[in-house]
Design a protein that fits this description.
By secondary structure, this protein is α/β, with parallel strands linked by helices. It is built from eleven helices and 23 strands. The strands form six sheets. An eleven-stranded mixed sheet has the order 17-7-8-6-3-19-20-2-22-1-23. Strands 10-11-15-14 form a four-stranded antiparallel sheet. Helix 8 links the parallel strand 19 and strand 20. The longest helix is centred in the N-terminal third of the chain and has 18 residues. 33% of the residues are buried.
Protein backbone atom coordinates (compact mmCIF):
# COMPACT_ATOMS: atom_id res chain seq x y z
CA UNK A 1 0.00 0.00 0.00
CA UNK A 2 1.38 3.39 -1.00
CA UNK A 3 1.60 5.96 1.80
CA UNK A 4 1.72 9.58 0.75
CA UNK A 5 3.54 12.16 2.85
CA UNK A 6 2.23 15.69 2.67
CA UNK A 7 5.09 17.98 1.71
CA UNK A 8 5.24 21.59 2.86
CA UNK A 9 7.20 22.62 -0.21
CA UNK A 10 7.22 21.07 -3.67
CA UNK A 11 10.38 20.94 -5.73
CA UNK A 12 10.18 22.06 -9.34
CA UNK A 13 10.63 18.52 -10.66
CA UNK A 14 7.88 17.05 -8.44
CA UNK A 15 5.12 17.00 -11.06
CA UNK A 16 2.61 14.39 -12.12
CA UNK A 17 3.10 15.47 -15.73
CA UNK A 18 6.27 17.48 -16.25
CA UNK A 19 6.16 20.55 -18.47
CA UNK A 20 2.43 21.25 -18.13
CA UNK A 21 1.28 24.48 -16.48
CA UNK A 22 -2.21 25.25 -15.13
CA UNK A 23 -3.93 28.37 -13.88
CA UNK A 24 -4.34 28.90 -10.16
CA UNK A 25 -8.13 28.45 -10.26
CA UNK A 26 -9.00 24.81 -9.50
CA UNK A 27 -12.79 25.16 -9.52
CA UNK A 28 -15.06 23.43 -12.03
CA UNK A 29 -18.75 23.02 -12.74
CA UNK A 30 -20.99 20.68 -14.66
CA UNK A 31 -22.98 22.03 -17.62
CA UNK A 32 -26.24 20.76 -19.13
CA UNK A 33 -29.39 22.18 -20.80
CA UNK A 34 -31.90 23.83 -18.49
CA UNK A 35 -29.49 24.67 -15.67
CA UNK A 36 -31.04 27.55 -13.74
CA UNK A 37 -28.72 30.33 -12.51
CA UNK A 38 -28.28 30.04 -8.77
CA UNK A 39 -29.20 33.65 -8.02
CA UNK A 40 -32.50 33.28 -9.93
CA UNK A 41 -33.34 30.16 -7.91
CA UNK A 42 -32.60 31.84 -4.59
CA UNK A 43 -34.78 34.84 -5.43
CA UNK A 44 -37.74 32.64 -6.26
CA UNK A 45 -40.60 32.82 -3.75
CA UNK A 46 -42.91 29.91 -2.89
CA UNK A 47 -45.78 29.49 -5.31
CA UNK A 48 -48.30 28.01 -2.91
CA UNK A 49 -49.87 28.90 0.40
CA UNK A 50 -49.45 26.63 3.45
CA UNK A 51 -51.91 26.04 6.26
CA UNK A 52 -51.64 24.28 9.60
CA UNK A 53 -53.90 21.24 9.50
CA UNK A 54 -52.98 19.56 12.81
CA UNK A 55 -51.54 21.51 15.75
CA UNK A 56 -49.84 24.89 15.49
CA UNK A 57 -46.63 26.50 16.73
CA UNK A 58 -44.86 23.18 17.28
CA UNK A 59 -41.08 22.68 17.22
CA UNK A 60 -41.53 19.58 15.05
CA UNK A 61 -43.20 19.95 11.67
CA UNK A 62 -44.40 17.68 8.87
CA UNK A 63 -45.16 19.36 5.53
CA UNK A 64 -47.37 17.83 2.84
CA UNK A 65 -46.30 19.54 -0.39
CA UNK A 66 -43.72 19.72 -3.17
CA UNK A 67 -40.37 19.93 -1.43
CA UNK A 68 -38.88 22.56 -3.76
CA UNK A 69 -41.72 24.93 -2.90
CA UNK A 70 -41.64 24.00 0.80
CA UNK A 71 -37.89 24.72 0.93
CA UNK A 72 -38.55 28.17 -0.57
CA UNK A 73 -41.32 28.67 1.97
CA UNK A 74 -39.00 27.77 4.86
CA UNK A 75 -36.28 30.01 3.48
CA UNK A 76 -38.31 33.12 2.64
CA UNK A 77 -41.45 32.94 4.80
CA UNK A 78 -40.57 30.99 7.92
CA UNK A 79 -37.10 32.36 8.69
CA UNK A 80 -35.36 28.98 8.69
CA UNK A 81 -32.26 30.22 6.87
CA UNK A 82 -29.12 29.01 8.65
CA UNK A 83 -31.00 27.12 11.37
CA UNK A 84 -30.85 23.46 10.30
CA UNK A 85 -27.99 21.51 11.86
CA UNK A 86 -28.37 18.27 9.93
CA UNK A 87 -30.03 17.26 6.67
CA UNK A 88 -30.40 13.62 5.66
CA UNK A 89 -32.20 12.81 2.42
CA UNK A 90 -32.94 9.54 0.64
CA UNK A 91 -34.18 11.01 -2.67
CA UNK A 92 -35.19 9.21 -5.87
CA UNK A 93 -32.21 7.46 -7.46
CA UNK A 94 -32.92 8.25 -11.11
CA UNK A 95 -34.09 4.70 -11.83
CA UNK A 96 -37.10 5.57 -14.04
CA UNK A 97 -39.35 3.36 -11.89
CA UNK A 98 -42.55 3.50 -9.82
CA UNK A 99 -42.31 2.13 -6.26
CA UNK A 100 -45.14 0.47 -4.36
CA UNK A 101 -45.59 -0.08 -0.64
CA UNK A 102 -46.30 -3.47 0.89
CA UNK A 103 -50.03 -2.88 0.51
CA UNK A 104 -49.45 -2.58 -3.27
CA UNK A 105 -50.17 1.15 -3.38
CA UNK A 106 -47.99 3.37 -5.55
CA UNK A 107 -45.83 5.41 -3.18
CA UNK A 108 -43.72 7.58 -5.47
CA UNK A 109 -42.42 7.92 -9.01
CA UNK A 110 -38.70 7.92 -9.68
CA UNK A 111 -39.02 8.86 -13.35
CA UNK A 112 -36.44 11.63 -13.81
CA UNK A 113 -33.27 10.68 -15.69
CA UNK A 114 -30.13 12.34 -17.03
CA UNK A 115 -29.89 16.13 -16.90
CA UNK A 116 -33.50 16.44 -15.70
CA UNK A 117 -32.59 14.43 -12.61
CA UNK A 118 -29.41 16.43 -12.01
CA UNK A 119 -31.26 19.75 -12.14
CA UNK A 120 -34.07 18.37 -9.96
CA UNK A 121 -31.47 17.54 -7.30
CA UNK A 122 -29.32 20.63 -7.80
CA UNK A 123 -32.14 23.12 -7.17
CA UNK A 124 -33.12 21.42 -3.94
CA UNK A 125 -29.53 21.05 -2.74
CA UNK A 126 -28.91 24.79 -3.24
CA UNK A 127 -31.92 25.65 -1.08
CA UNK A 128 -30.85 23.08 1.51
CA UNK A 129 -27.40 24.68 1.68
CA UNK A 130 -29.04 28.02 2.51
CA UNK A 131 -31.10 26.40 5.27
CA UNK A 132 -28.07 24.70 6.85
CA UNK A 133 -26.41 26.36 9.81
CA UNK A 134 -22.75 27.31 9.50
CA UNK A 135 -21.79 24.24 11.52
CA UNK A 136 -24.29 21.99 9.75
CA UNK A 137 -23.89 18.87 7.61
CA UNK A 138 -25.80 17.10 4.86
CA UNK A 139 -25.97 13.39 3.99
CA UNK A 140 -27.35 12.36 0.57
CA UNK A 141 -28.25 8.67 0.22
CA UNK A 142 -28.06 7.27 -3.34
CA UNK A 143 -27.21 4.12 -5.24
CA UNK A 144 -24.57 3.60 -7.91
CA UNK A 145 -26.84 4.95 -10.64
CA UNK A 146 -26.27 8.68 -9.96
CA UNK A 147 -23.94 8.94 -6.96
CA UNK A 148 -20.91 10.06 -8.92
CA UNK A 149 -22.77 12.68 -10.95
CA UNK A 150 -24.38 14.10 -7.80
CA UNK A 151 -20.98 14.30 -6.12
CA UNK A 152 -19.84 16.67 -8.87
CA UNK A 153 -23.01 18.72 -8.32
CA UNK A 154 -22.38 18.82 -4.57
CA UNK A 155 -18.75 19.82 -5.08
CA UNK A 156 -20.08 22.77 -7.06
CA UNK A 157 -22.71 23.72 -4.47
CA UNK A 158 -20.90 23.07 -1.18
CA UNK A 159 -17.31 23.30 -2.37
CA UNK A 160 -15.02 20.30 -2.85
CA UNK A 161 -13.15 21.30 0.31
CA UNK A 162 -16.31 20.55 2.34
CA UNK A 163 -16.62 17.00 1.04
CA UNK A 164 -16.15 14.77 4.10
CA UNK A 165 -16.45 11.34 2.56
CA UNK A 166 -18.58 8.70 0.86
CA UNK A 167 -20.07 5.99 3.05
CA UNK A 168 -20.52 2.61 1.37
CA UNK A 169 -23.37 0.69 3.01
CA UNK A 170 -24.24 -2.96 2.64
CA UNK A 171 -27.99 -2.63 2.01
CA UNK A 172 -29.06 -6.28 1.79
CA UNK A 173 -27.89 -9.87 1.94
CA UNK A 174 -25.76 -11.35 -0.83
CA UNK A 175 -27.45 -11.79 -4.20
CA UNK A 176 -26.56 -15.13 -5.75
CA UNK A 177 -28.87 -14.78 -8.76
CA UNK A 178 -26.61 -12.29 -10.58
CA UNK A 179 -24.94 -14.02 -13.52
CA UNK A 180 -23.25 -11.36 -15.66
CA UNK A 181 -22.00 -8.85 -13.10
CA UNK A 182 -21.25 -8.51 -9.38
CA UNK A 183 -24.09 -8.71 -6.89
CA UNK A 184 -25.57 -5.28 -6.16
CA UNK A 185 -25.60 -5.18 -2.36
CA UNK A 186 -24.35 -1.64 -1.68
CA UNK A 187 -25.54 1.92 -1.78
CA UNK A 188 -23.75 5.18 -0.97
CA UNK A 189 -24.11 8.22 1.27
CA UNK A 190 -22.37 11.47 0.31
CA UNK A 191 -21.33 13.46 3.39
CA UNK A 192 -20.68 17.21 3.13
CA UNK A 193 -20.46 20.02 5.66
CA UNK A 194 -21.36 23.64 5.01
CA UNK A 195 -18.05 24.94 6.41
CA UNK A 196 -14.90 23.56 7.97
CA UNK A 197 -16.36 24.21 11.44
CA UNK A 198 -19.01 21.51 11.59
CA UNK A 199 -20.51 19.49 14.44
CA UNK A 200 -18.88 16.09 14.64
CA UNK A 201 -19.01 13.32 17.26
CA UNK A 202 -17.07 10.43 15.78
CA UNK A 203 -19.15 7.26 16.14
CA UNK A 204 -17.56 4.17 17.58
CA UNK A 205 -18.56 0.50 17.73
CA UNK A 206 -18.14 -1.50 20.96
CA UNK A 207 -15.24 -3.90 21.35
CA UNK A 208 -15.77 -7.66 21.38
CA UNK A 209 -13.91 -9.50 24.15
CA UNK A 210 -11.68 -11.45 21.77
CA UNK A 211 -10.88 -8.24 19.89
CA UNK A 212 -9.82 -6.54 23.14
CA UNK A 213 -7.38 -9.33 23.96
CA UNK A 214 -5.93 -9.18 20.46
CA UNK A 215 -5.62 -5.41 20.12
CA UNK A 216 -4.59 -4.67 23.73
CA UNK A 217 -2.34 -7.66 24.54
CA UNK A 218 -0.24 -6.07 27.32
CA UNK A 219 -1.06 -5.61 31.02
CA UNK A 220 0.53 -2.84 33.07
CA UNK A 221 2.35 -4.38 36.03
CA UNK A 222 1.53 -1.57 38.45
CA UNK A 223 -2.12 -0.88 37.64
CA UNK A 224 -3.32 -4.05 35.91
CA UNK A 225 -4.67 -1.92 33.05
CA UNK A 226 -4.65 -3.49 29.60
CA UNK A 227 -2.74 -1.57 26.90
CA UNK A 228 -1.13 -1.68 23.47
CA UNK A 229 2.18 -0.22 22.30
CA UNK A 230 2.25 2.31 19.47
CA UNK A 231 5.09 4.32 17.87
CA UNK A 232 5.80 7.81 19.18
CA UNK A 233 6.84 9.09 15.75
CA UNK A 234 4.92 9.88 12.55
CA UNK A 235 5.79 10.29 8.84
CA UNK A 236 7.35 13.56 7.66
CA UNK A 237 10.21 15.73 8.83
CA UNK A 238 9.64 18.83 10.97
CA UNK A 239 11.83 21.81 11.80
CA UNK A 240 10.01 22.74 15.01
CA UNK A 241 9.99 21.15 18.46
CA UNK A 242 8.82 17.75 17.22
CA UNK A 243 11.91 17.53 15.03
CA UNK A 244 14.37 18.08 17.91
CA UNK A 245 16.20 15.43 19.98
CA UNK A 246 14.52 13.77 22.94
CA UNK A 247 16.57 11.94 25.60
CA UNK A 248 19.53 12.09 23.22
CA UNK A 249 17.58 10.49 20.34
CA UNK A 250 16.40 11.91 17.05
CA UNK A 251 13.25 10.60 15.35
CA UNK A 252 13.93 8.01 12.62
CA UNK A 253 14.90 9.38 9.18
CA UNK A 254 11.93 10.97 7.41
CA UNK A 255 9.89 11.05 10.65
CA UNK A 256 9.06 13.43 13.50
CA UNK A 257 7.94 12.96 17.09
CA UNK A 258 4.16 12.84 17.58
CA UNK A 259 4.59 15.10 20.63
CA UNK A 260 7.05 17.77 21.70
CA UNK A 261 10.06 16.54 23.75
CA UNK A 262 8.51 18.20 26.81
CA UNK A 263 5.24 16.27 26.39
CA UNK A 264 7.13 13.00 25.82
CA UNK A 265 9.02 13.58 29.07
CA UNK A 266 5.68 14.10 30.89
CA UNK A 267 4.30 10.85 29.40
CA UNK A 268 7.44 8.99 30.45
CA UNK A 269 7.20 10.32 34.00
CA UNK A 270 3.60 9.05 34.20
CA UNK A 271 4.68 5.58 33.09
CA UNK A 272 2.97 5.91 29.72
CA UNK A 273 6.12 5.17 27.71
CA UNK A 274 7.26 1.57 27.26
CA UNK A 275 11.00 1.00 26.82
CA UNK A 276 12.10 -2.16 25.03
CA UNK A 277 15.19 -4.12 26.00
CA UNK A 278 17.23 -2.28 23.33
CA UNK A 279 15.98 1.15 24.42
CA UNK A 280 13.25 1.68 21.82
CA UNK A 281 10.45 3.89 23.23
CA UNK A 282 6.79 3.28 22.43
CA UNK A 283 3.66 4.88 23.89
CA UNK A 284 1.21 2.89 26.01
CA UNK A 285 -2.38 3.29 24.84
CA UNK A 286 -4.74 2.00 27.54
CA UNK A 287 -7.96 0.23 26.69
CA UNK A 288 -10.00 1.93 29.42
CA UNK A 289 -9.49 5.25 27.64
CA UNK A 290 -10.83 3.81 24.39
CA UNK A 291 -14.31 4.96 23.29
CA UNK A 292 -14.64 1.95 21.01
CA UNK A 293 -13.64 1.06 17.47
CA UNK A 294 -13.96 4.21 15.31
CA UNK A 295 -16.55 3.66 12.59
CA UNK A 296 -15.00 3.74 9.12
CA UNK A 297 -16.65 4.56 5.78
CA UNK A 298 -17.82 1.01 4.99
CA UNK A 299 -20.95 0.12 6.99
CA UNK A 300 -21.86 -3.56 7.08
CA UNK A 301 -24.07 -3.50 10.17
CA UNK A 302 -27.05 -1.33 9.14
CA UNK A 303 -28.64 -3.14 6.22
CA UNK A 304 -32.42 -3.09 5.72
CA UNK A 305 -35.10 -5.73 6.32
CA UNK A 306 -33.01 -8.43 7.94
CA UNK A 307 -35.80 -10.66 9.22
CA UNK A 308 -39.56 -11.01 9.65
CA UNK A 309 -39.52 -9.83 13.29
CA UNK A 310 -38.36 -6.25 12.74
CA UNK A 311 -40.94 -3.48 12.97
CA UNK A 312 -41.61 -1.38 9.88
CA UNK A 313 -44.20 0.83 8.21
CA UNK A 314 -44.14 -1.07 4.90
CA UNK A 315 -42.97 1.92 2.84
CA UNK A 316 -40.85 0.70 -0.12
CA UNK A 317 -37.64 2.61 0.65
CA UNK A 318 -37.75 2.46 4.45
CA UNK A 319 -34.26 2.56 5.99
CA UNK A 320 -32.82 0.85 9.04
CA UNK A 321 -33.25 3.21 12.00
CA UNK A 322 -29.78 2.33 13.29
CA UNK A 323 -28.38 3.92 10.12
CA UNK A 324 -30.14 7.18 10.98
CA UNK A 325 -29.22 6.88 14.64
CA UNK A 326 -25.53 6.83 13.74
CA UNK A 327 -25.82 9.84 11.44
CA UNK A 328 -27.97 11.93 13.79
CA UNK A 329 -25.70 11.31 16.78
CA UNK A 330 -22.53 11.98 14.77
CA UNK A 331 -23.61 15.29 13.23
CA UNK A 332 -25.99 16.97 15.67
CA UNK A 333 -26.58 17.69 19.36
CA UNK A 334 -29.67 17.48 21.53
CA UNK A 335 -32.09 20.27 20.67
CA UNK A 336 -30.73 20.74 17.14
CA UNK A 337 -32.99 20.86 14.10
CA UNK A 338 -32.85 17.86 11.73
CA UNK A 339 -34.45 17.95 8.28
CA UNK A 340 -35.54 15.28 5.81
CA UNK A 341 -37.34 16.75 2.79
CA UNK A 342 -37.79 13.33 1.17
CA UNK A 343 -39.33 12.01 4.39
CA UNK A 344 -40.80 8.76 3.04
CA UNK A 345 -41.82 6.56 5.98
CA UNK A 346 -40.56 9.10 8.56
CA UNK A 347 -37.63 7.11 9.96
CA UNK A 348 -35.40 10.20 10.10
CA UNK A 349 -38.08 12.15 11.94
CA UNK A 350 -38.75 9.36 14.43
CA UNK A 351 -35.06 8.79 15.19
CA UNK A 352 -34.36 12.53 15.50
CA UNK A 353 -37.21 12.97 17.98
CA UNK A 354 -36.23 9.93 20.03
CA UNK A 355 -32.71 11.34 20.25
CA UNK A 356 -34.19 14.64 21.49
CA UNK A 357 -33.69 16.66 18.33
CA UNK A 358 -36.32 18.79 16.62
CA UNK A 359 -37.37 17.84 13.10
CA UNK A 360 -38.82 19.17 9.86
CA UNK A 361 -40.09 16.59 7.40
CA UNK A 362 -41.45 17.11 3.88
CA UNK A 363 -43.06 14.79 1.35
CA UNK A 364 -45.49 15.14 -1.56
CA UNK A 365 -46.69 11.54 -1.61
CA UNK A 366 -50.01 10.87 0.12
CA UNK A 367 -48.83 7.31 0.72
CA UNK A 368 -45.70 8.61 2.49
CA UNK A 369 -47.75 11.03 4.61
CA UNK A 370 -50.07 8.15 5.57
CA UNK A 371 -47.11 6.03 6.67
CA UNK A 372 -45.67 8.86 8.75
CA UNK A 373 -48.99 9.61 10.46
CA UNK A 374 -49.50 5.91 11.11
CA UNK A 375 -45.99 5.60 12.52
CA UNK A 376 -46.60 8.28 15.14
CA UNK A 377 -50.27 7.61 15.92
CA UNK A 378 -50.58 3.83 15.63
CA UNK A 379 -47.07 2.48 15.80
CA UNK A 380 -45.26 -0.03 13.60
CA UNK A 381 -45.93 -3.59 12.54
CA UNK A 382 -43.71 -6.62 12.47
CA UNK A 383 -42.62 -7.36 8.93
CA UNK A 384 -44.20 -10.80 9.22
CA UNK A 385 -47.55 -9.24 10.05
CA UNK A 386 -47.89 -8.08 6.45
CA UNK A 387 -47.92 -11.75 5.45
CA UNK A 388 -50.41 -12.80 8.13
CA UNK A 389 -52.60 -9.70 7.52
CA UNK A 390 -52.55 -8.95 11.24
CA UNK A 391 -54.58 -5.85 12.07
CA UNK A 392 -52.90 -2.56 12.94
CA UNK A 393 -53.02 -1.97 16.73
CA UNK A 394 -56.02 0.05 17.80
CA UNK A 395 -55.57 3.64 18.85
CA UNK A 396 -54.38 3.87 22.45
CA UNK A 397 -52.35 0.66 22.36
CA UNK A 398 -48.67 0.72 23.23
CA UNK A 399 -46.36 2.32 20.67
CA UNK A 400 -44.24 -0.34 18.95
CA UNK A 401 -40.86 1.32 18.73
CA UNK A 402 -38.28 0.70 16.05
CA UNK A 403 -35.78 0.68 18.90
CA UNK A 404 -37.46 -2.16 20.78
CA UNK A 405 -34.20 -4.08 21.00
CA UNK A 406 -32.37 -1.12 22.52
CA UNK A 407 -33.72 -0.41 25.98
CA UNK A 408 -32.43 3.16 26.11
CA UNK A 409 -34.96 4.20 23.44
CA UNK A 410 -38.63 4.68 24.10
CA UNK A 411 -40.97 6.58 21.83
CA UNK A 412 -41.70 10.01 23.28
CA UNK A 413 -44.78 10.52 21.13
CA UNK A 414 -48.33 10.45 22.41
CA UNK A 415 -50.40 10.00 19.30
CA UNK A 416 -49.53 12.81 16.88
CA UNK A 417 -49.63 15.64 19.39
CA UNK A 418 -45.91 16.32 19.34
CA UNK A 419 -45.72 17.77 15.83
CA UNK A 420 -47.63 20.06 13.54
CA UNK A 421 -48.93 18.93 10.16
CA UNK A 422 -48.82 21.65 7.52
CA UNK A 423 -50.16 21.27 4.00
CA UNK A 424 -50.01 23.04 0.68
CA UNK A 425 -53.54 24.44 0.30
CA UNK A 426 -54.13 22.15 -2.68
CA UNK A 427 -53.85 19.16 -0.34
CA UNK A 428 -55.94 20.42 2.60
CA UNK A 429 -58.99 18.25 1.98
CA UNK A 430 -56.87 15.19 1.30
CA UNK A 431 -54.91 15.83 4.51
CA UNK A 432 -58.17 16.14 6.44
CA UNK A 433 -59.23 12.73 5.15
CA UNK A 434 -55.87 11.15 6.06
CA UNK A 435 -56.04 12.45 9.62
CA UNK A 436 -59.65 11.36 10.00
CA UNK A 437 -58.65 7.87 8.88
CA UNK A 438 -56.32 7.67 11.88
CA UNK A 439 -58.85 9.10 14.31
CA UNK A 440 -57.22 12.54 14.42
CA UNK A 441 -59.14 15.78 14.25
CA UNK A 442 -57.98 18.60 11.97
CA UNK A 443 -57.73 22.18 13.15
CA UNK A 444 -61.19 23.84 13.03
CA UNK A 445 -59.69 27.01 11.55
CA UNK A 446 -56.85 27.23 9.07
CA UNK A 447 -53.79 29.25 10.00
CA UNK A 448 -52.14 30.42 6.78
CA UNK A 449 -48.36 30.41 7.02
CA UNK A 450 -47.34 32.45 3.98
CA UNK A 451 -47.93 35.79 5.64
Amino acid sequence: MATGITANKWTEDARIISGEEYAGDFSFEISYPGKMPEDALLKGLPEFRYSSVLNQEMANRLYYGENLDVLKHLLHKEGFRGTVKLIYIDPPYGTNSVFQSRNQKSSYRDDLVGSHYLEFMRRRLILMRELLSENGSIYVHLDGNMTFQIKVIMDEIFGAKNYRGTITRKKCSNKNSTTRTYGNISDYILFYSKTDNYTWHRPAAPWAEEKILKEYPCVDEKTGRRYKKVPIHAPGTRNGETGKPWKGMMPPPGKHWQYTPRKLTELDAKGDIYWSANGNPRRKVFFDNDRGIPVQDIWLDVQDSLNQSIRITGYPTEKNPCLLERIVEASSDMGDLVMDCFAGSGTTLDVAAQLERRFVGVDNSSEAICHIIKRFSKGLERMGDYVSKKEIPKKGSAQMSLFEAKAKYNSRFEGSRDFAVIADDRYIEEMDAILEGFGLKSNPRRAGLNG
